Amino acid sequence: MKPEDLGLAEPARSAAAQLYAQFPDVLFTSGRRGVGDQARAMASNIVANRHWIAETYMATAESQALQKWVDTHPAAVSQDKIAQGLAGVMVTWSDAQKGKVSKHFSGEAFDVQPVPGEKGKAIKAYIRTLPGLTKFLEKEGGLIRWHAQFA
Question: Is there a contact between 140 and 56 (Cβ–Cβ < 8 Å)?
């Protein structure tokens, strides 16, 4: 994906363009997400770690509702089933509620494919200098994910 395909809002849009100009081979894996996309992204991590939500997100009523769904549906083990359940929880949420879970909903966050070695170190260092950056995660719930968030 290229920066213009991510559906980002400012300042994330400009930051992604800057990153891409500096590292044209960087691979963006996610930008703005709807409920279904967010549910699928979360579900892919939950398949590997059933406590991923609690270990990744700040404790809010919204994140706790999502983790509760996972905890009370132990038979849901496939990414599709988990995604359907999470989407069912989030579908009625307001934009403010969604924002308490992820800045991907508003287009104020993007994810980048992790890169090993010196090149990866250079990309991470550059991301940390991007204007408007409020959070950069290299791991989420113990899983290697590069997530840049803006305000």
Answer: yes
pLDDT at 141: 67
Q: Phi and psi dihedrals of 107, rounded to 5? A: 80, 20
130 vs 111: CA distance, rounded Å: 14
State the residue for tokens 């699928």: 40
In this prediction the pTM is 0.88
Query: Per mean pLDDT, which range of 4-13, 100-109, 140-149 is the poorest?
Result: 140-149
Kindly report the length of the chain. Answer: 151
**Amino acid code (one letter) for 108:** E
Instruction: Look up residue 132 and give its two tokens.
Output: 């408007």
Neighbouring C-beta atoms of residue 15, cutoff 10 Å: 22
Name the residue type at position 10: E
Assess contact for 143 and 48: CB atoms under 8 A.
yes
